[in-house]
Design a protein that fits this description.
This protein is of the alpha+beta class. The protein contains eight helices and 30 strands.
Amino acid sequence: MCCCAQELTQVVCPRRTARNWVLMASLVAYDDSDSEAEAEPMGSLPAAGPRKDTSDVVRPCGRDFTSGVLDLSEGGALPAKHSSCKDPADQRLPLVQLWRSDPGSCPSQRLQWPRVKPEVTFPTREPPRPSLWTSHAPPGHVPLAAARWKQVKLSWRTHDTPEPSFCAQTKPRTPGQKGSALQRKRHEDCVVPYVPKRLRQLQALSTETDKSEDVATQGPSAGRAPAPLCVAPHVSEFIQPFLDTQYQETQISRRVLFQLRGHRGPVNSIQWCPVSSKSHMLLSASMDKTFKVWNAVDSGRCLQTYTLHSEAVRAARWSPCGQRLLTGGFDCALHLIDLETGTQLFSGQSNFRVTTLKFHPKDHSVFVCGGFSSEIKAWDTRTSKVVRSYKATVQQTLDILFLREGSEFLSSTDASSRDSADRTIIAWDFRSSAKISNQIFHERYTCPSLALHPREPVFLAQTNGNYLALFSAVWPYRMSRRRRYEGHKVEGYSVGCECSPDGDLLVTGSADGRVLLYCFRTASRARTLSAHAQACIGTTFHPVLPSVLATCSWEGDIKIWH
């Protein structure tokens, strides 16, 4: 009985051992990133629970892995057959041959049981050094290890090369592909290659170039000549009835006709076009580096915006012919623009910031400019050169005023002392550049603006003493002691003043936002308008319409009064 039992045990044990190894081989689960979505082969057994690696399994009695033999003819067929592991001769394949033919099927490397809930794990080692790609990752960037679980499509910048990096080219491995766990770990860590410094600089330069191109497409940049201004060939219907008649008596404006809003900074000056048929256009200069042309009579809309200056535009003037615009600003630049063609006829660079400009009343190709300098220069637009220079012991020129015939002009400066203000107003001979007189205004106030009366040989000076002074326009330029226009405030602003075309009214702004109109003969106040919330800088009467007045303020708006 003992011999029979031993023989039966020897016969049964190999068959039972082979059957156990067949079951263990069928329970091998491939741990791959994309194997979860694939259907399991038919006949494979589900995992009963967490198990240890086969390297920890106790070997059967007297059997080693290298000597074990799988019997494919007995005990049933394998659940999934591999063509690389088939031996048609005797259908008996040692385990060592199976492992050598497919190293990835080794139990110590491939036998891993899936968890109940997969979790994304990241390496605990020190983070890699920041590189160009990792430091400038897009907002929707997801690490590759997390993207493979969540199946998130990586978003790369569109302006880069169409070929992505090798980290994005890694494809999910199938169970039949060869590859070690170390290679898969490197792909999951997404190691970024080194980018040379020169290449990083080129990429940064290309990014800045793209940004500058985007800014250029949004709007015109400073220094470019704008498109030509489309001037209507017909005369405004409101101005046409007044062209063939003599200017009537100026009427006092009472209500606002238009409120022009387009400047983003204080408006320094405004001026109507001097040509009667084109006097519906209004020119404005602002601290926002632009100057504009408005249709301030018919529609109140902006006709053209010019961005030729890189700093604040302090002065802007119409040419006497009404076809050109002359501007100067804090960028020390001078520009003469043709209104109809949009071409730049003259461009000059002074050595000081320009605050005032005036055309010569006879020779329209010559103009005089002053600013933050003790020198006043006369330019010729035909040669683009300085033809005359006028020097005085002052620091700044506030305003310039040509007297009749253009042989003389006046300049107001910031020179003042404790008791008197000699050199505050200086009379110059235009041709010889000589001083005619510097003892005109003897009070200790500076004069930010000057205005000439249209019919009488007198001129007005706006003073920081909060009054308008009246002077004779003929040598020795004496000041009138009997007539003084008071009631407004200057307080350091460059508040302008002007006479009406018929000479009966005077208008001036005020630091508190009011507009005051005075009777020229009696110096009495005719009317006060509550115009602006901030300081009213400029005021001007329309040259044709007797009841139209334009005002501008420090808050950046322009109002047309009727």
